[in-house]
Amino acid sequence: MTIRPVFVAVAALGIVVTSVAQVVTQRSRGEFMRQKLEFAKNVLEGLTVENFDLVEKNARSLKRLSMAAEWEVPEIPHVEEYLPRTAEFQRLCDQIVAAARARNLDGATLGYVGLTTSCVNCHKYVRGAGAR
Ligand code: HEC
C-alpha cells in the first residue's frame, strides 16, 4: 500500500499542533465560531448596503480566522475530510474579496452564497463525523 502524501502531511501537522490543541478548550472554539458568525453577518450587511469596503474587510477577517483555527484540526475526527472543507472556505473568502475589490456586487453575492453553503456543509459533516 502506498501512503498518500495528504496523510503524511496531516500526520506531520498533527504532531506539530497537538500540544497547542491540548491547552485549547471547547469554549474557545465556540468563541472562534461566534466571531466567524459576526464577520459573516458583516459581509451580508456590506452586500445589502453596497459597502464594498465592509465586504472586503470582513471576508479578509474570515479567512484570517479560518487560518488561525487550523491548530484545532487534529481534534476533528476524519481530519482528511476536514482540510478540504477549510481550503474551500478560504477559497470562497478570496473570491468575495476579489469581487468586492472589482466592485462586482453579483460576484460578491455569489461568493457569499457559496460561503454560507460551506458553513452549513462543514457543520453537517462535523456533527456526523463523530458517529461514523
Ligand atoms: C471547515 C469546517 C467549518 C466551516 C467551514 C465553518 N465551521 Fe462553524 N463550526 C465548525 C466546528 C468544528 C464547530 C464546533 C462544533 C462543536 O464543537 O460542536 C463549529 C461551530 C460553529 C458555531 C457554534 C459555536 C458555539 O457557540 O458553539 C457557529 C455559530 C459557527 N460554527 C459559525 C460558522 C459560520 C457562520 C461559518 C461560515 C461563515 C462556519 N461556522 C463555517 C467548523 C466549521
Structure description:
80% of the residues lie in helices and 0% in strands. By secondary structure, the chain is mainly alpha-helical. The chain has one domain: Cytochrome c/b562 (Four Helix Bundle (Hemerythrin (Met), subunit A), Up-down Bundle), CATH 1.20.120.10. Helix 2 runs antiparallel to helix 3 and helix 2 (26-48) packs antiparallel against helix 5 (105-129). The protein is elongated, with a radius of gyration of 16 Å. The protein starts with a helix and ends with a helix. The model is unreliable at 16-24 (pLDDT under 50). Residues 29-30, 33-34, 36-37, 40, 82, 85-86, 89, 115, 118-119, 122-123, 126 line the site of heme C.
How do the strands and helices of this protein lay out in sequence?
Blueprint: H1 5-22, H2 26-48, H3 52-68, H4 79-101, H5 105-129
Helix pairs in contact: 2-3, 2-5, 3-4, 4-5
Bound molecules: heme C.
Describe the global form. Answer: elongated
C-alpha termini separation: 24 Å
Q: Kindly give the count of domains.
A: 1
* Beta-strand residue percentage: under 5%
Quaternary: single chain
What number is the mean pLDDT? 83
Secondary-structure-derived class: mainly alpha
**N-to-C series of helices and strands:** HHHHH
> What is the helix fraction of residues, given as a range?
over 70%
CATH homology superfamily: Cytochrome c/b562
Tell me which CATH architecture applies here.
Answer: Up-down Bundle
List the uncertain runs: 16-24
Count of helical stretches? 5
What compounds sit in this structure?
A: heme C
The CATH C-level class name? Mainly Alpha
